Automatic annotation (TrEMBL):
Membrane topology term: Multi-pass membrane protein
Limits of the Amino acid permease/ SLC12A domain: 15-457
Designated name of the protein: Amino acid permease/ SLC12A domain-containing protein
Any one cellular-component term (Gene Ontology): membrane
Membrane-crossing residue ranges in chain numbering: 34-54, 74-100, 120-139, 151-170, 190-211, 232-254, 282-306, 342-359, 365-388, 400-425, 437-456
Lineage: Eukaryota, Fungi, Dikarya, Ascomycota, Saccharomycotina
Keyword set includes Signal: yes
Keywords: Membrane, Signal, Transmembrane, Transmembrane helix, Transport
Organism of derivation: Cyberlindnera jadinii (strain ATCC 18201 / CBS 1600 / BCRC 20928 / JCM 3617 / NBRC 0987 / NRRL Y-1542)
Presence of keyword Transmembrane: yes
One MF term in the entry's GO annotations: transmembrane transporter activity
Principal location: membrane
Secretion signal span: 1-18
Compartment list: Membrane
Length: 523
């Protein structure tokens, strides 16, 4: 239930779909939103199945699983790129969630003041406040995270029900189901109708790729080979279904699209304008926005948690300098939280937020690169699995059996296609400010990660340290494995980093499976 709550929070249908609705309204409206959502939902579910099978065989962070699946000659480089794509995706996703939340909070002023225009400086200040609140909860109240994750499921489900019911009750105008599922207006995009429909996939992709963050907490989960795989599959299945329930009433009361997009909205988030125009009630609109702000807090808390664990695991495996700092866990802490990793993730968000002051286009490019990075992180282990004829997942707790090849191939093609779609601008003609620079930012990330490999990674990155009892043999991996004595030392309460483990506790071997490290709470 807690893992499901974390997945729900990271995908958060009301927040994700509400904030990104503007792009799909430009590129066709209801048909694009519902049709595109259906296609993305089905294909994302295939990706979730592929990732769940890998995680059930190697219940660990995704970069470690990538190392264990890839050919021995390429295991370290595959692990390196997977880990950094996932780390960058975590950081950018966390930033996009909290920044979107800041925009929604400030948009509430537009409910009572139709001339209110969101100020970029005030947005960044509010963004800093949201990041700080979510970060402090991770730092000071981590023992309650399991309860928070469980509460998240109920909050999101009831939020969707309240939003839908109140919109249908208070709206004076209702569209037919035919309008909701078939109306297509491509007068705003400038793209041919087919391309506009495809570009509209971006809205659902921003929501449904959140499951890729869940393996980051594998080391803290009891019975991880089953819990994480079930959490990945069920969170996509249920959050995706909840998205349908959320979208249908929204489109049934959809106001004139001209009032929801363009400069005349003054930066107000589309979902807030829909609440205001549909209900024509300040009180009801405020209440509906508060429900989404609650979604924001759950999403922000979860995204910082997964970001910090990605920092912890990559540092532990030698990918980041100053690993002793990022993997340090205070011995006297009630819950073993890597607080420095949490603070680093917060600092990255603070720095990225400054881009919004310099250029909103540059900031949006970095945010758009979040989903591309997560797709790339999932793509590497799935492709490696196919190249190895799926031999490395034999005996997995979650089995795709005879349809595994088909599902893995569909997942590979879909992830590559998603990267292409997310690189397209939503409107034509393209201007310097409307251009989608997400693909260029991603290529910049690839260049930086490659340079880091030659400068730092190939000399310091050793891949996952492993406990021999967790999984089966994986031949010829150029890694190390812990002896039972070393593993016990590493997990003693007074251990803060790997320096406490002596060289005699570690031995070279060709056997490698994932070591379980528990930096904080159990889910």
């Amino acid at each position: 239930m807690s893992m499901l709550g974390l997945g729900f929070g990271l995908m958060s249908p009301p927040l994700s779909l509400g904030v990104t609705m503007g792009s799909s309204l430009i590129d066709g409206g209801p048909l694009t939103i519902m049709g595109g959502y259906t296609i993305v939902y089905v294909c994302s579910f295939f990706c979730a199945l592929s990732l769940a099978e890998i995680t059930s065989k190697y219940p660990t962070e995704l970069h470690s699983g990538a190392a264990l699946i890839a050919h021995p000659d390429y295991s370290l480089i595959c692990s390196w790129f997977t880990g950094f794509f996932l780390l960058i995706g975590n950081w950018l996703t966390s930033t996009s969630i909290t920044f979107a939340g800041a925009q929604i909070i400030l948009s509430t002023v537009g409910i009572v003041d139709s001339k209110y225009e969101i100020d970029s400086v005030l947005t960044v200040i509010m963004f800093y406040l949201v990041v700080t609140v979510c970060g402090v909860i991770n730092l000071k109240f981590s023992k309650y995270l399991e309860f928070i994750n469980k509460l998240c499921v109920y909050w999101i489900v009831y939020s969707i029900l309240f939003i839908d019911i109140l919109l249908l009750i208070f709206s004076r105008n209702h569209h037919s189901l035919k309008y909701v599922f078939t109306h297509f207006d491509n007068s705003f995009s400038g793209w041919p109708s087919g391309m506009a429909f495809i570009i509209g996939f971006q809205q659902a992709n921003f929501m449904l790729q959140g499951f890729g963050l869940l393996p980051s907490v594998s080391d803290e989960v009891q019975d991880a080979e089953r819990t994480v795989s079930r959490g990945i599959v069920l969170s996509v299945l249920l959050a995706g279904g909840a998205g349908f329930i959320f979208l249908i009433p929204i489109l049934a009361v959809l106001p004139d699209v001209n009032l929801l997009i363009g400069e005349k909205t003054h930066g107000i988030v589309p979902i807030v304008l829909i609440f205001k125009l549909a209900t024509r009630s300040v009180i009801v609109s405020f209440f509906l926005v508060i429900l989404i702000i609650g979604n924001l807090l759950f999403s922000g808390i979860g995204s910082i948690a997964t970001s910090s664990r990605a920092v912890f695991s990559m540092s532990r495996d030698g990918a980041l300098p100053f690993a002793d700092i990022w993997t340090h866990v205070h011995a006297d802490s009630e819950s073993k939280v890597p607080k420095n990793s949490v603070m680093l993730s917060m600092a990255i968000s603070y720095l990225l937020g400054l881009l919004a002051l310099v250029s909103s286009t540059a900031f949006n490019a970095f945010v758009g690169a979040a989903v591309i990075s997560l797709c790339a992180a999932s793509l590497i282990p799935i492709v490696s699995l196919l190249l190895g004829a799926r031999k490395k997942v034999r005996g997995a707790a979650f089995k795709l059996k005879y349809v595994g090849f088909i599902i893995n191939i569909i997942s590979t093609l879909w992830l590559a296609f998603t990267i292409f779609v997310l690189s397209l601008p939503p409107q034509l003609p393209v201007t310097a400010s409307s251009m989608n620079y997400a693909s260029l930012v991603f290529l910049l990330f690839v260049l930086i990660i490659t340079i880091l490999w030659f400068v730092w990674g190939r000399h310091n990155f050793h891949g996952p340290l492993v406990d021999k009892g967790v999984s089966e043999r994986s031949d010829s991996l150029p890694m190390q494995t812990m002896t039972s004595e070393g593993y016990q030392k590493l997990n003693e309460p007074n251990v803060s980093n790997r320096e406490n483990v002596t060289s005699s506790d570690i031995k070279s071997t060709t056997e490698a499976v994932q070591m379980t490290v528990q930096p904080s709470y159990d889910i």
